[in-house]
């Protein structure tokens, strides 16, 4: 008998993955959590029926959400990650030699515990010497820590359930206040194919707060449509002016100095959404 997991994107589109084994299932206080061993993408973390990451292609997402802003800021000593309970973004952030402290705030401690057991390739970030983990509400944490961080990364789930507030104008204003005078903010902002209107709204909201706002993208096979977007807001530094030779050399599998520049080139269909 074949076992398949299907992620439903909307009423007209879904993606299915052949499953070797269901490794873990739990209903946490916040969401339904599962870890599947899939044939095409290996172990996969699924929250509320939505694929969050897989061990085969996770490095693309985590490198792009972390290293683009890290290498845009000349001295990112203090970094805050909201969400990211699998540990992948924290792993990438702690690679950067200028990061003195990386704080991860995750509302659901069970995501961290399960990731430590089933996704050690990602969760190794929790063991970094300069990593700090806080279990709590990221929105509240940001509001209580003003003028504190050089970089804030919002590694959230889709804008449903506990993550809805992380896509709000009010939250973006709070992020601006939590950043230092030259700080940078970046968030994952969904699929350009299925969420183009959302991306346009987010871009408008962030550009109304930050003097430098850029959307960039990467191809991530496990995400719907494969094309995935990130939106960056900066108080001072523009990622497009970063010289390739200024980008620090450390281990990555997807991100490169050339990718840093190229990822901001917008396809026309998406560029038109920002007009």
Structure description:
The chain has 275 residues and is of the alpha/beta class. The chain has two domains: 52 residues, Spermidine Synthase, Chain: A, domain 2 (Roll); 217 residues, Rossmann fold, CATH 3.40.50. 26% of the residues lie in helices and 33% in strands. The protein contains nine helices and twelve strands. The strands form two sheets. The chain has a seven-stranded mixed sheet with strand order 8-7-6-9-10-12-11, with helices on both faces. It has a five-stranded antiparallel sheet with strand order 1-2-3-4-5. Helix 5 crosses helix 6. It is globular and about 55 Å long. The chain starts with a strand and ends with a helix. The relative contact order is 0.14.
Count the DSSP helices.
9
User: Order of strands across the widest beta sheet?
Assistant: 8-7-6-9-10-12-11
State the name of the first-level CATH class of the largest domain.
Alpha Beta
Number of strands: 12
N to C succession of SSEs: EEEEEHEHEHHEHEHEHEEHH
CATH architecture identity of the largest domain:
3-Layer(aba) Sandwich
* Rg (CA only): 18 Å
Through-space gap between termini: 51 Å
Any idea how many domains? 2
Average pLDDT over all residues: 93
Largest sheet: 7 strands, mixed
According to CATH, the homologous superfamily of the largest domain is Vaccinia Virus protein VP39
The assigned structural class equals: alpha/beta
Question: Which regions are unreliable across 5 or more consecutive residues at pLDDT < 50?
Answer: none
Q: CATH topology of the largest domain, which one?
A: Rossmann fold
Please report which band the strand proportion falls in: under 5%, 5-15%, 15-25%, 25-35%, 35-45% or over 45%: 25-35%
């Amino acid at each position: 008998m074949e076992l398949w997991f299907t992620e439903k994107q909307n009423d007209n589109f879904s993606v299915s993955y052949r499953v070797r084994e269901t490794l873990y299932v739990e209903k946490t206080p916040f969401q339904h959590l599962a870890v599947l061993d899939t044939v095409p993408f290996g172990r996969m973390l699924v929250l509320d029926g939505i694929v969050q990451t897989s061990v085969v292609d996770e490095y693309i997402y985590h490198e792009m959400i972390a290293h683009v802003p890290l290498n845009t800021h000349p001295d990112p000593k203090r970094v805050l990650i909201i969400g990211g309970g699998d540990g992948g973004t924290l792993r990438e952030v702690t690679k950067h030699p200028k990061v003195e402290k990386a704080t991860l705030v995750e509302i659901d401690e069970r995501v961290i515990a399960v990731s430590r057991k089933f996704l050690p390739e990602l969760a190794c970030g929790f063991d970094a010497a300069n990593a700090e983990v806080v279990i709590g509400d990221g929105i509240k944490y940001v509001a209580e820590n003003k003028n504190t961080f050089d970089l804030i990364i919002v590694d959230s789930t889709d804008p449903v359930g506990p993550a809805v507030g992380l896509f709000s104008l009010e939250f973006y204003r709070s992020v601006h206040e939590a950043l230092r005078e030259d700080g940078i903010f970046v968030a994952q902002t969904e699929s350009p194919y299925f969420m183009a209107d959302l991306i346009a709204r987010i871009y408008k909201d962030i550009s109304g707060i930050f003097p430098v706002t850029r959307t960039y993208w990467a191809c991530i096979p496990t995400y719907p449509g494969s094309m995935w977007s990130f939106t960056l807001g900066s108080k001072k530094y523009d990622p497009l002016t970063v010289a390739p030779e200024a980008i620090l050399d450390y281990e990555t599998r997807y991100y490169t100095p050339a990718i840093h520049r190229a990822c901001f080139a917008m396809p026309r269909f998406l560029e038109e959404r920002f007009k």
